[in-house]
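ok trying again, last paste got cut off:
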Amino acid sequence: MIAIIDYGAGNTASIINVLEELKADFVLSNDKKIIQSADKIILPGVGEASSAMKKLNELNLVDELRYTTKPFLGICLGMQLLFTKTEEGNAECLNVIPGEVKKFNFANIKVPHMGWNEIIKLNNDEMLRGIDNKTFFYFAHSYYVPQNDFSTSFSNYGLNFSSSVRYKNFFGVQFHPEKSAVQGIQIIKNFLSL
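nice, full thing came through this time. structure:
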């Protein structure tokens, strides 16, 4: 069973639709016992980082997520929250992966970065299995994770940023697989097959 973390910062409906389409066994919950009994965890995320972390703290889920050994997928804000801290609301994050989330700060490029963009694969991480290099995914974000030692792919929007990351059992994607057509569904399938 997959636990989708329900913490008020998720665009959970579209993820639920994909999981239902794939006939996956899942539950939307913020109950620690249910999350502990799950085989895998998805942390979706649309919204603001500091309020998302505040909510995870209120729900007493920070350590549960930080120390899990289960396959874990962070999507968009959910990926950013895996890092040490973020410039968004100057918040401390889950601190699973070292690094700081930055704000796109361009005079001449529109922020947020919204729409389709290609990813350049840096390795053959299992989350990117069946995905060709330079495949397009759907993005919607104003903050980014700089390319780092844990990046499995990057994209360019005025600068190179991490479009996917991996650290041990933690996987993150900056794009929205649930809004990225067949290639996005492939990402979800890859996660289900871990």
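cool. The helical segments are 12-21, 32-37, 49-58, 62-66, 77-80, 181-192. The chain has a mean pLDDT of 96.
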